């Protein structure tokens, strides 16, 4: 059995760990609120953008000459995967869930004999992927300095992707991120952004006849690159809300576990202290009897 | 029925302005200034650097935008932009920084005509803001 002193040390160490996890939970809760708000505020923009693009693309008559960002290169050989993760750990399964999703996709790609390229955003994703996919990672972007997800950063990522697309470095681009459902649940998502997947929608709104100025193609050509940045920004917002939510519940668990551990250790400490006292008493009594 | 229409200006981070019952909006569309009144036909266009003028009643609001998309449908005008600020409470320093940046850009050699035109235009507009 551990000595009394050791037990005492362990109890105090677990207690201080508990203090840290508790503080982290509070911080995450505060940050979560902010992240959630900004995710909600960002929604109208991406929704409107989506609507406009849907309206536009359903109006594109000449599919052959449609911008490549919309219709694709016609090939399906090189896949670019953008894996968006956090820059910090200690947030439960947040990062590994994205990685797991991405890895199963990577497996699918390489099983079908297609080429794979990876861009990681956020250092945790890079750390987890570099061991297996070092040669596939072509870029590693990290925004450690930025406090919150902002559009400027998303635009940077978007520009890199578009530049690579224009240099014909890949045919299909997919992004991986966590969608924020609630504090306990975050759903890892894969979303194809190039070529754009337009969901078949009911024909209601295609009756709208828009006037375009300048013509559709030029607007689409201008709009689609912006849409990439917007999608990435949306993913970043969802991610940051998910990260804080995930961290909050992870830290909540940790705090609770630490509490349980302290209780157990305290009982053990008291028991062994009592045992020592009893032992001493027995020694004294039996010593006195033998006199 | 009111005689105005609704306007929504959103940027990626938040909804910038949402207003009802606006009588007229002038936007710097790509091929020239465009005034929009109620019951305009549905239109999609994009913006060049310039000033959005929102008129409602006797009020007038001016905003500077750099780029963006404008959509008008069902008497709702949506403007999506990543760079917008209110001219009334503008930071002079910010404007002069922007001018500086645009001018630096202009001095590069590898510009095509279209880009050069847009940048020149941007500098012009920003200068007119900073004078006022």
Characterise this structure.
- The complex is a heterodimer of chains A (291) and B (132).
- Chain A is built from six helices and six strands, in the order ααβαβαβαβββα.
- In chain A, β4 and β5 form a beta hairpin.
- About 2% of the residues of chain A have low confidence.
- Chain B is an alpha+beta fold.
- The model of chain B has no long low-confidence stretch (mean pLDDT 83).
- In chain B, the strands form two sheets. In chain B, strands 2-1-9-8-5 form a five-stranded mixed beta sheet, with no helix packed on it. Chain B has a five-stranded antiparallel beta sheet with strand order 4-3-6-7-10.
- In chain B, β3 and β4 form a beta hairpin.
- In chain B, α1 runs antiparallel to α2.
Key attributes of the depicted protein:
heterodimer, A: 291 residues, alpha/beta, Pyruvate Kinase, Chain: A, domain 1, 2 domains, 14% strand, B: alpha+beta, ATP Synthase, domain 1
Biggest sheet descriptor of chain B: 5 strands, mixed
Tell me the major beta sheet of chain A. 5 strands, mixed
Structural class of chain B: alpha+beta
Strand content of chain B: 35-45%
Find the CATH topology of the largest domain in chain A: Pyruvate Kinase, Chain: A, domain 1
What is the CATH domain class of the largest domain in chain B? Answer: Mainly Beta
Helix segment tally of chain B: 2
Secondary-structure arrangement, i.e. CATH architecture of the largest domain in chain B? Sandwich
**SS strand fraction of chain A:** 5-15%
Rounded to an integer, what's the Rg of chain B over CA atoms? 15 Å
């Amino acid at each position: 059995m551990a000595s009394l002193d050791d037990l005492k040390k362990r109890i105090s160490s677990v207690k201080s760990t508990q203090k840290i996890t508790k503080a982290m939970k509070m911080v995450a809760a505060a940050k979560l609120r902010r992240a959630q708000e900004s995710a909600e505020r960002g929604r109208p923009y991406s929704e409107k953008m989506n609507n406009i693009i849907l309206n536009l693309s359903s109006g594109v008559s000449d599919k052959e000459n449609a911008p490549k960002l919309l219709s694709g290169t016609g090939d399906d050989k090189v896949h670019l995967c953008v894996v968006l993760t956090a820059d910090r750990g200690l947030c439960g399964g947040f990062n590994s869930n994205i990685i797991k999703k991405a890895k199963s996709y990577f497996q699918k790609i390489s099983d079908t004999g297609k080429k794979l390229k990876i861009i990681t955003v956020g250092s945790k994703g890079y750390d987890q992927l570099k061991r297996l996919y070092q040669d596939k990672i072509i870029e590693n972007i990290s925004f450690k300095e930025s406090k919150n997800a902002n559009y400027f950063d998303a635009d940077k990522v978007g520009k890199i992707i578009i530049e690579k697309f224009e240099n014909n470095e890949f045919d299909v681009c997919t992004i991986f991120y966590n969608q924020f459902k609630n504090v306990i649940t975050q759903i890892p998502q894969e979303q194809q952004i190039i070529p754009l997947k337009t969901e078949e929608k009911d024909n209601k709104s295609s009756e709208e006849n828009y006037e375009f100025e300048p013509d559709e193609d030029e607007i689409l050509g201008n709009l689609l690159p912006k849409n990439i940045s917007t999608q990435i920004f949306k993913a970043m917002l969802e991610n940051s809300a998910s990260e804080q939510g995930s961290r909050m519940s992870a830290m909540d668990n940790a705090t609770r576990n630490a509490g349980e551990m302290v209780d157990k250790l305290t009982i053990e400490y008291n028991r062994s202290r009592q045992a020592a006292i009893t032992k001493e008493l027995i020694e004294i009594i039996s010593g006195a009897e033998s006199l | 029925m009111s005689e105005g229409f609704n306007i929504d200006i959103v940027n990626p981070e938040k909804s910038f302005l949402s207003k009802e019952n606006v009588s007229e909006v002038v936007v710097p569309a790509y091929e020239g200034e465009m005034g929009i009144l109620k019951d305009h036909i549905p239109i999609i266009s994009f913006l060049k650097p310039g000033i959005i003028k929102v008129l409602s009643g006797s009020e007038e609001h001016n905003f500077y935008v750099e780029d963006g998309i404008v959509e008008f449908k069902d008497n709702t005008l949506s403007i999506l932009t990543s760079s917008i600020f209110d001219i009334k409470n503008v930071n002079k320093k910010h404007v002069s920084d922007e001018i500086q940046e645009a001018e630096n850009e202009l001095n590069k050699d590898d510009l095509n005509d279209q880009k050069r035109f847009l940048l020149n235009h941007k500098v012009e507009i920003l200068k007119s803001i900073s004078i006022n």
